[in-house]
Design goal:
alpha/beta, Purple Acid Phosphatase, chain A, domain 2, ten-stranded mixed β-sheet, 10 helices, globular, binds zinc ion
Protein backbone atom coordinates (compact mmCIF):
# COMPACT_ATOMS: atom_id res chain seq x y z
CA UNK A 1 0.00 0.00 0.00
CA UNK A 2 2.93 2.36 0.54
CA UNK A 3 3.97 2.69 -3.10
CA UNK A 4 0.71 4.13 -4.57
CA UNK A 5 0.65 6.58 -1.69
CA UNK A 6 4.10 7.78 -2.61
CA UNK A 7 3.07 8.20 -6.27
CA UNK A 8 0.08 10.26 -5.27
CA UNK A 9 2.29 12.46 -3.11
CA UNK A 10 4.68 12.97 -6.01
CA UNK A 11 1.80 13.93 -8.35
CA UNK A 12 0.50 16.50 -5.92
CA UNK A 13 3.98 17.98 -5.60
CA UNK A 14 4.50 18.25 -9.35
CA UNK A 15 1.02 19.68 -9.68
CA UNK A 16 1.84 22.64 -7.44
CA UNK A 17 4.93 23.43 -9.45
CA UNK A 18 3.26 23.52 -12.83
CA UNK A 19 -0.46 23.82 -12.68
CA UNK A 20 -1.32 24.13 -16.36
CA UNK A 21 -0.03 20.62 -16.91
CA UNK A 22 -1.66 19.44 -13.75
CA UNK A 23 -3.27 16.03 -13.75
CA UNK A 24 -5.69 17.25 -11.16
CA UNK A 25 -7.42 19.75 -13.43
CA UNK A 26 -10.28 21.82 -11.96
CA UNK A 27 -13.32 19.65 -11.47
CA UNK A 28 -16.07 20.30 -14.01
CA UNK A 29 -19.38 21.15 -12.44
CA UNK A 30 -22.00 18.74 -13.63
CA UNK A 31 -25.38 19.62 -15.06
CA UNK A 32 -24.78 23.37 -14.81
CA UNK A 33 -27.01 24.05 -17.76
CA UNK A 34 -30.05 22.45 -16.28
CA UNK A 35 -32.00 25.60 -15.59
CA UNK A 36 -35.43 24.03 -15.66
CA UNK A 37 -35.28 22.10 -12.39
CA UNK A 38 -37.95 23.53 -10.17
CA UNK A 39 -36.74 25.75 -7.34
CA UNK A 40 -33.36 26.32 -8.93
CA UNK A 41 -32.14 29.69 -10.13
CA UNK A 42 -28.90 30.35 -11.99
CA UNK A 43 -27.08 33.66 -12.20
CA UNK A 44 -23.98 34.63 -14.13
CA UNK A 45 -21.93 37.64 -13.06
CA UNK A 46 -19.84 39.48 -15.63
CA UNK A 47 -17.07 42.05 -15.05
CA UNK A 48 -16.43 45.52 -16.41
CA UNK A 49 -17.95 46.66 -19.70
CA UNK A 50 -15.50 49.41 -20.66
CA UNK A 51 -15.95 51.73 -23.63
CA UNK A 52 -12.41 52.60 -24.74
CA UNK A 53 -12.31 54.73 -27.87
CA UNK A 54 -10.56 52.14 -30.14
CA UNK A 55 -13.28 49.61 -29.25
CA UNK A 56 -16.06 52.10 -30.09
CA UNK A 57 -14.34 53.05 -33.37
CA UNK A 58 -14.05 49.46 -34.51
CA UNK A 59 -17.83 48.98 -34.39
CA UNK A 60 -18.66 52.13 -36.36
CA UNK A 61 -19.99 51.73 -39.88
CA UNK A 62 -18.74 54.78 -41.76
CA UNK A 63 -21.10 54.36 -44.72
CA UNK A 64 -24.24 53.99 -42.64
CA UNK A 65 -22.96 56.20 -39.79
CA UNK A 66 -24.22 53.65 -37.26
CA UNK A 67 -22.85 51.51 -34.45
CA UNK A 68 -23.53 47.82 -33.93
CA UNK A 69 -21.63 45.79 -31.33
CA UNK A 70 -23.34 42.42 -31.82
CA UNK A 71 -20.18 40.85 -33.29
CA UNK A 72 -18.34 41.58 -30.03
CA UNK A 73 -20.64 39.17 -28.16
CA UNK A 74 -21.27 36.56 -30.85
CA UNK A 75 -19.04 33.84 -29.35
CA UNK A 76 -19.82 34.46 -25.70
CA UNK A 77 -23.59 35.02 -25.79
CA UNK A 78 -24.58 31.30 -25.96
CA UNK A 79 -22.76 30.79 -22.67
CA UNK A 80 -24.39 33.85 -21.07
CA UNK A 81 -27.84 32.74 -22.20
CA UNK A 82 -27.53 29.42 -20.37
CA UNK A 83 -28.24 31.18 -17.07
CA UNK A 84 -31.59 32.52 -15.91
CA UNK A 85 -30.08 35.95 -15.25
CA UNK A 86 -26.89 37.70 -16.39
CA UNK A 87 -25.55 40.80 -14.64
CA UNK A 88 -22.61 42.99 -15.78
CA UNK A 89 -21.00 46.26 -14.70
CA UNK A 90 -21.59 49.14 -17.13
CA UNK A 91 -18.45 51.19 -16.58
CA UNK A 92 -19.40 54.11 -18.81
CA UNK A 93 -22.19 56.59 -19.38
CA UNK A 94 -24.69 56.64 -22.23
CA UNK A 95 -24.54 60.42 -22.33
CA UNK A 96 -24.69 60.78 -26.10
CA UNK A 97 -22.25 62.52 -28.45
CA UNK A 98 -19.44 63.24 -28.53
CA UNK A 99 -18.62 59.63 -27.79
CA UNK A 100 -15.51 59.47 -25.65
CA UNK A 101 -13.26 56.85 -24.11
CA UNK A 102 -10.89 57.15 -21.19
CA UNK A 103 -10.89 59.11 -18.90
CA UNK A 104 -14.53 60.27 -19.25
CA UNK A 105 -16.59 57.64 -20.96
CA UNK A 106 -19.67 58.13 -23.10
CA UNK A 107 -20.67 55.27 -25.37
CA UNK A 108 -23.44 54.82 -27.95
CA UNK A 109 -26.64 53.17 -26.72
CA UNK A 110 -25.97 50.40 -29.26
CA UNK A 111 -23.36 48.99 -26.86
CA UNK A 112 -26.03 48.46 -24.19
CA UNK A 113 -28.42 47.10 -26.84
CA UNK A 114 -25.84 44.51 -27.87
CA UNK A 115 -25.32 43.58 -24.19
CA UNK A 116 -29.06 42.94 -24.07
CA UNK A 117 -29.02 40.95 -27.31
CA UNK A 118 -26.22 38.84 -25.81
CA UNK A 119 -28.41 37.96 -22.81
CA UNK A 120 -27.26 40.53 -20.25
CA UNK A 121 -30.56 41.74 -18.79
CA UNK A 122 -29.19 43.67 -15.81
CA UNK A 123 -26.43 46.29 -15.54
CA UNK A 124 -24.87 47.92 -12.49
CA UNK A 125 -24.22 51.64 -12.86
CA UNK A 126 -22.48 52.63 -9.60
CA UNK A 127 -18.77 52.80 -10.39
CA UNK A 128 -15.97 55.35 -10.59
CA UNK A 129 -17.18 56.47 -14.03
CA UNK A 130 -20.82 57.16 -13.04
CA UNK A 131 -20.26 60.94 -12.95
CA UNK A 132 -18.04 61.18 -16.07
CA UNK A 133 -20.62 63.37 -17.86
CA UNK A 134 -22.16 65.08 -14.86
CA UNK A 135 -25.84 65.11 -14.02
CA UNK A 136 -26.98 64.82 -17.64
CA UNK A 137 -24.83 61.74 -18.09
CA UNK A 138 -26.43 59.99 -15.13
CA UNK A 139 -29.96 60.92 -16.20
CA UNK A 140 -29.41 59.95 -19.85
CA UNK A 141 -27.83 56.62 -18.90
CA UNK A 142 -30.80 55.71 -16.72
CA UNK A 143 -33.42 56.89 -19.23
CA UNK A 144 -31.78 55.11 -22.16
CA UNK A 145 -31.49 51.82 -20.26
CA UNK A 146 -35.18 52.13 -19.32
CA UNK A 147 -36.04 52.77 -22.96
CA UNK A 148 -34.32 49.63 -24.24
CA UNK A 149 -35.65 47.51 -21.37
CA UNK A 150 -32.42 46.74 -19.50
CA UNK A 151 -32.75 46.65 -15.71
CA UNK A 152 -30.17 48.74 -13.88
CA UNK A 153 -29.24 49.71 -10.35
CA UNK A 154 -26.60 51.69 -8.47
CA UNK A 155 -27.46 55.19 -9.73
CA UNK A 156 -30.88 56.85 -9.55
CA UNK A 157 -32.75 59.87 -10.92
CA UNK A 158 -33.54 61.03 -7.37
CA UNK A 159 -34.12 59.84 -3.81
CA UNK A 160 -37.62 58.61 -4.63
CA UNK A 161 -36.32 56.42 -7.47
CA UNK A 162 -33.60 55.08 -5.17
CA UNK A 163 -36.18 54.12 -2.58
CA UNK A 164 -38.15 52.21 -5.18
CA UNK A 165 -35.41 50.51 -7.16
CA UNK A 166 -32.31 50.28 -4.96
CA UNK A 167 -32.90 46.60 -4.31
CA UNK A 168 -33.23 44.50 -7.45
CA UNK A 169 -35.06 41.22 -6.90
CA UNK A 170 -34.50 38.31 -9.27
CA UNK A 171 -37.20 35.67 -9.07
CA UNK A 172 -37.68 32.17 -10.34
CA UNK A 173 -40.54 30.05 -9.06
CA UNK A 174 -40.30 30.35 -5.27
CA UNK A 175 -36.74 31.70 -5.12
CA UNK A 176 -36.00 35.40 -4.61
CA UNK A 177 -32.45 36.74 -4.85
CA UNK A 178 -31.77 40.37 -3.94
CA UNK A 179 -29.01 42.54 -5.48
CA UNK A 180 -27.44 45.79 -4.24
CA UNK A 181 -24.65 47.84 -5.88
CA UNK A 182 -22.11 50.35 -4.49
CA UNK A 183 -18.89 52.07 -5.59
CA UNK A 184 -15.85 53.27 -3.62
CA UNK A 185 -16.00 56.65 -5.37
CA UNK A 186 -16.44 58.60 -8.60
CA UNK A 187 -12.86 59.56 -9.56
CA UNK A 188 -13.04 62.74 -7.48
CA UNK A 189 -16.00 64.08 -9.48
CA UNK A 190 -18.77 65.41 -7.25
CA UNK A 191 -22.10 63.61 -7.26
CA UNK A 192 -24.44 66.14 -8.87
CA UNK A 193 -27.23 67.52 -6.75
CA UNK A 194 -30.54 65.67 -6.91
CA UNK A 195 -29.30 62.38 -8.39
CA UNK A 196 -28.07 59.40 -6.36
CA UNK A 197 -24.93 57.33 -6.80
CA UNK A 198 -24.58 54.51 -4.27
CA UNK A 199 -21.28 55.00 -2.46
CA UNK A 200 -19.67 52.47 -0.14
CA UNK A 201 -20.91 53.84 3.16
CA UNK A 202 -21.32 51.23 5.85
CA UNK A 203 -24.09 53.15 7.66
CA UNK A 204 -26.20 53.37 4.49
CA UNK A 205 -25.36 49.81 3.46
CA UNK A 206 -26.48 48.50 6.84
CA UNK A 207 -29.82 50.31 6.43
CA UNK A 208 -30.23 48.91 2.89
CA UNK A 209 -29.45 45.38 4.07
CA UNK A 210 -31.92 45.67 6.94
CA UNK A 211 -34.61 46.92 4.54
CA UNK A 212 -33.90 44.08 2.14
CA UNK A 213 -34.54 41.58 4.94
CA UNK A 214 -38.19 42.66 5.00
CA UNK A 215 -38.66 41.60 1.35
CA UNK A 216 -38.72 37.83 1.84
CA UNK A 217 -35.42 37.24 0.06
CA UNK A 218 -33.78 33.83 -0.01
CA UNK A 219 -30.29 35.30 -0.51
CA UNK A 220 -28.68 38.73 -0.82
CA UNK A 221 -25.87 39.56 -3.26
CA UNK A 222 -23.89 42.80 -3.00
CA UNK A 223 -21.98 44.01 -6.06
CA UNK A 224 -19.05 46.20 -5.11
CA UNK A 225 -16.89 48.45 -7.25
CA UNK A 226 -13.81 48.38 -5.04
CA UNK A 227 -10.19 47.38 -4.58
CA UNK A 228 -6.92 48.58 -6.08
CA UNK A 229 -6.38 48.65 -9.83
CA UNK A 230 -4.06 45.96 -11.25
CA UNK A 231 -3.57 44.30 -7.84
CA UNK A 232 -3.89 40.54 -8.15
CA UNK A 233 -4.79 40.13 -4.48
CA UNK A 234 -7.49 41.84 -2.44
CA UNK A 235 -6.59 44.64 -0.05
CA UNK A 236 -7.20 44.64 3.69
CA UNK A 237 -9.91 47.23 3.08
CA UNK A 238 -11.77 44.80 0.79
CA UNK A 239 -11.49 42.00 3.35
CA UNK A 240 -12.69 44.25 6.19
CA UNK A 241 -15.71 45.44 4.20
CA UNK A 242 -16.47 41.84 3.25
CA UNK A 243 -16.43 40.81 6.92
CA UNK A 244 -18.74 43.73 7.76
CA UNK A 245 -21.27 42.75 5.08
CA UNK A 246 -21.25 39.07 6.04
CA UNK A 247 -21.76 40.02 9.68
CA UNK A 248 -24.91 41.85 8.61
CA UNK A 249 -26.36 38.95 6.64
CA UNK A 250 -25.07 39.34 3.08
CA UNK A 251 -24.55 35.99 1.33
CA UNK A 252 -22.50 36.80 -1.77
CA UNK A 253 -20.11 39.62 -2.69
CA UNK A 254 -19.21 40.17 -6.33
CA UNK A 255 -16.41 42.67 -6.97
CA UNK A 256 -15.24 44.66 -9.95
CA UNK A 257 -12.85 47.55 -10.76
CA UNK A 258 -9.24 46.26 -10.44
CA UNK A 259 -9.17 45.33 -14.23
CA UNK A 260 -7.68 41.96 -13.26
CA UNK A 261 -9.23 38.85 -11.78
CA UNK A 262 -8.79 38.57 -8.03
CA UNK A 263 -9.42 35.39 -5.98
CA UNK A 264 -12.80 33.80 -5.29
CA UNK A 265 -13.56 32.29 -1.89
CA UNK A 266 -16.46 29.98 -1.06
CA UNK A 267 -16.63 29.22 2.64
CA UNK A 268 -19.09 28.29 5.33
CA UNK A 269 -19.47 30.60 8.30
CA UNK A 270 -19.77 29.42 11.88
CA UNK A 271 -23.53 28.89 11.42
CA UNK A 272 -22.90 26.60 8.45
CA UNK A 273 -24.15 29.14 5.88
CA UNK A 274 -22.38 29.37 2.53
CA UNK A 275 -20.66 32.67 1.79
CA UNK A 276 -19.01 33.56 -1.51
CA UNK A 277 -16.63 36.44 -2.19
CA UNK A 278 -15.43 37.13 -5.72
CA UNK A 279 -12.97 39.96 -5.12
CA UNK A 280 -12.76 41.01 -8.76
CA UNK A 281 -14.13 39.63 -12.02
CA UNK A 282 -11.64 41.52 -14.20
CA UNK A 283 -12.36 43.09 -17.59
CA UNK A 284 -15.13 41.77 -19.78
CA UNK A 285 -14.79 44.35 -22.57
CA UNK A 286 -11.80 46.67 -22.83
CA UNK A 287 -8.87 47.76 -24.95
CA UNK A 288 -6.41 46.99 -22.16
CA UNK A 289 -3.73 44.54 -23.32
CA UNK A 290 -1.24 44.37 -20.45
CA UNK A 291 -0.84 40.95 -18.81
CA UNK A 292 -3.96 39.91 -16.85
CA UNK A 293 -6.07 42.86 -18.08
CA UNK A 294 -7.04 41.36 -21.46
CA UNK A 295 -9.67 39.01 -20.04
CA UNK A 296 -11.99 38.29 -17.18
CA UNK A 297 -14.14 35.72 -15.42
CA UNK A 298 -17.83 34.93 -15.62
CA UNK A 299 -18.93 33.54 -12.28
CA UNK A 300 -21.87 31.18 -12.30
CA UNK A 301 -24.05 30.71 -9.22
CA UNK A 302 -26.85 28.24 -8.68
CA UNK A 303 -29.22 28.48 -5.78
CA UNK A 304 -31.42 25.51 -4.91
CA UNK A 305 -34.44 25.58 -2.64
CA UNK A 306 -35.49 22.41 -0.86
CA UNK A 307 -37.85 22.14 2.11
CA UNK A 308 -37.90 25.93 2.32
CA UNK A 309 -34.14 26.07 2.68
CA UNK A 310 -32.13 27.84 -0.04
CA UNK A 311 -28.54 26.80 -0.60
CA UNK A 312 -25.82 28.18 -2.82
CA UNK A 313 -24.26 25.25 -4.66
CA UNK A 314 -20.47 25.23 -5.19
CA UNK A 315 -19.89 28.08 -7.66
CA UNK A 316 -17.66 27.97 -10.71
CA UNK A 317 -16.14 30.32 -13.24
CA UNK A 318 -15.50 30.57 -16.98
CA UNK A 319 -12.54 32.53 -18.33
CA UNK A 320 -13.16 34.98 -21.17
CA UNK A 321 -10.64 36.82 -23.30
CA UNK A 322 -10.85 39.89 -25.51
CA UNK A 323 -9.63 38.78 -28.92
CA UNK A 324 -8.21 41.87 -30.67
CA UNK A 325 -6.98 41.44 -34.21
CA UNK A 326 -6.65 43.34 -37.48
CA UNK A 327 -8.85 42.50 -40.47
CA UNK A 328 -8.71 44.47 -43.73
CA UNK A 329 -6.67 47.15 -41.98
CA UNK A 330 -9.20 47.60 -39.15
CA UNK A 331 -9.05 46.63 -35.50
CA UNK A 332 -11.59 43.98 -34.57
CA UNK A 333 -12.64 42.87 -31.09
CA UNK A 334 -14.50 39.79 -29.94
CA UNK A 335 -14.97 38.30 -26.50
CA UNK A 336 -14.23 34.60 -26.64
CA UNK A 337 -14.69 31.82 -24.11
CA UNK A 338 -11.16 30.64 -23.29
CA UNK A 339 -12.14 27.03 -23.81
CA UNK A 340 -12.80 27.51 -27.52
CA UNK A 341 -9.95 29.06 -29.45
CA UNK A 342 -10.92 30.88 -32.61
CA UNK A 343 -9.09 31.79 -35.81
CA UNK A 344 -7.38 35.20 -35.83
CA UNK A 345 -6.40 34.61 -32.24
CA UNK A 346 -3.02 35.57 -30.92
CA UNK A 347 -2.52 32.13 -29.42
CA UNK A 348 0.54 33.14 -27.44
CA UNK A 349 -1.26 35.98 -25.62
CA UNK A 350 -4.38 33.90 -25.04
CA UNK A 351 -2.38 30.98 -23.71
CA UNK A 352 -0.49 33.27 -21.38
CA UNK A 353 -3.76 34.66 -20.03
CA UNK A 354 -5.22 31.19 -19.52
CA UNK A 355 -2.17 29.58 -17.96
CA UNK A 356 -1.26 32.48 -15.67
CA UNK A 357 -4.86 32.96 -14.51
CA UNK A 358 -5.41 29.24 -13.90
CA UNK A 359 -2.20 28.97 -11.97
CA UNK A 360 -3.06 31.96 -9.81
CA UNK A 361 -6.67 30.98 -9.14
CA UNK A 362 -5.79 27.34 -8.47
CA UNK A 363 -3.43 28.62 -5.79
CA UNK A 364 -5.60 31.37 -4.28
CA UNK A 365 -9.23 30.38 -4.80
CA UNK A 366 -11.09 28.57 -2.07
CA UNK A 367 -13.57 25.96 -3.36
CA UNK A 368 -14.29 27.81 -6.63
CA UNK A 369 -13.23 25.85 -9.70
CA UNK A 370 -13.21 26.50 -13.41
CA UNK A 371 -16.22 25.13 -15.29
CA UNK A 372 -14.85 23.00 -18.08
CA UNK A 373 -17.93 21.78 -19.92
ZN1 LIG B 1 -13.72 51.07 -12.17
Amino acid sequence: MRWPFFVLFFLILSCNKNNENCLFRPKPIVSINNKDISDTISLVFIGDVMGHRPVLNSFYNKEQKTYNFDYLFEEISPLIKKSDYAIANLELTLAGRPFTGYPRFSAPIELAKSCKNAGIQILTTANNHSCDRGKKGILKTINKLDKIGVRHFGTYLDKEARKKSNLVILKKKTIKIGLLNYTYGTNGLPIPEGVCVNLIDTTQMKLDIEKSKTKGLDKLVVLLHWGNEYQLKPSKKQRDLGDFLYKHGVDVIIGSHPHVIQPMEFKKNKDGLEKLTVFSLGNFISNQRKPNTDGGALVKLRFVKKNNLTKLLPPGYFLTWVNKFVEKGRNKYQIIPCLSQKPNTSIKKLNYFISSTRKRLAKNNIEVNEILD
